[in-house]
From TrEMBL:
PANTHER family: HTH-TYPE TRANSCRIPTIONAL REGULATOR RUTR, TRANSCRIPTIONAL REGULATORY PROTEIN. InterPro entries: Homeodomain-like_sf (IPR009057), HTH-type_TetR-like_transc_reg (IPR050109), HTH_TetR (IPR001647), Repressor_TetR_C (IPR004111), Tet_transcr_reg_TetR-rel_C_sf (IPR036271). It comes from the Bacteria. Residues 36-96 form the HTH tetR-type domain. Residues 59-78 bind DNA. This is TetR/AcrR family transcriptional regulator. Keywords: DNA-binding, Transcription, Transcription regulation. It comes from Cohnella ginsengisoli.
Length: 260
């Protein structure tokens, strides 16, 4: 927090304790054996548990036990589970942000942002289980907001439009990451990968989905598109790409109107 000698203490104190820790605004506890416990060690242990077993397995008691300490010992460093969750998301968002590139257009750069977000959330499947409690307010989370805003910086958009565009593309990345996470979990639990494409149900659905009962769905099923057995699945038909490209097309159309 350099470069600002007039920071308002009351405003900074309004931040949750987890955010204050993330910004280095409060000194962590020094009670207990020196070096044996720290905010970083607690957060690392919590991320490890959540990565392996999911967010439902996480508790302050579980983290304390994994570190060989009492639960009360943790509360001397991190005041609540909500603060711990905030610090966990902050920790996994500590990634290398790409340097600015003049060789890439804004579409390619936004695609890179979306794909990076999805990889992050799939690597930490619990991430999207953490309730959204408000706007990002911790350093690394704010870097994940600053990155796409940097991409949009020189486009003819108002500040509101830039922020709304970031919300749009980050929302798409979150939606797709949740879907992929659920598929990953189902397959890990022994599910059949083909159930997601519907290939194994194609013939049955063609008999059950009649034009009388499902007039709009019927031609999709009959063509084999619903269950991906139309024989024409190609890169151009990739669902993720199709959705993202239409979002980017919409942004580009908005930009063309702003320029005219």
């Amino acid at each position: 927090m350099s470069g600002n000698d007039t920071m308002d203490e009351d405003s900074l104190n309004s931040l949750p304790h987890g955010a204050q820790l993330a910004w280095g605004l409060v000194k962590p506890s020094t009670r207990g054996p020196k070096g044996e416990l720290s905010v970083g060690k607690i957060v690392d242990a919590a991320v490890g548990i959540a990565d392996r077993e999911g967010l439902s397995a996480l508790s302050m008691n579980r983290v304390a036990s994994s570190l060989g300490f009492t639960t009360m010992s943790l509360y001397r460093y991190i005041k609540s589970k909500d603060d711990l969750l905030m610090l966990m998301t902050e920790a996994v968002c500590d990634i290398q942000i790409p340097e600015e590139s003049e060789g890439k257009g804004w579409r390619d750069q936004l695609r890179e942002y979306v794909e990076t977000c999805i990889r992050l959330m799939r690597a930490h499947p619990w991430f999207t289980d953490v309730p959204i409690m408000g706007v990002p307010i911790t350093p690394n989370n704010l870097k994940m907001v600053d990155w796409p805003l940097r991409i949009l910086r020189d486009l003819p958009l108002s500040e509101y439009e830039k922020m709304s565009t970031v919300l749009l593309v980050s929302g798409y990345s979150r939606f797709y990451a949740i879907m992929m996470r659920d598929m990953d979990r189902a397959i890990e639990a022994g599910g059949n990968p083909e159930s997601f494409s519907g290939l194994m149900y194609g013939e049955a659905l063609r008999q059950l989905v009649t034009p009388e009962r499902y007039p709009a769905l019927y031609p999709i099923v009959a063509a084999g598109v619903y269950t991906e057995d139309d024989g024409n699945k190609s890169e151009a038909q990739n669902d993720f790409d199709f959705g993202l490209e239409r979002i980017l097309d919409g942004i580009e159309l908005h930009l063309s109107r702003a320029r005219s």
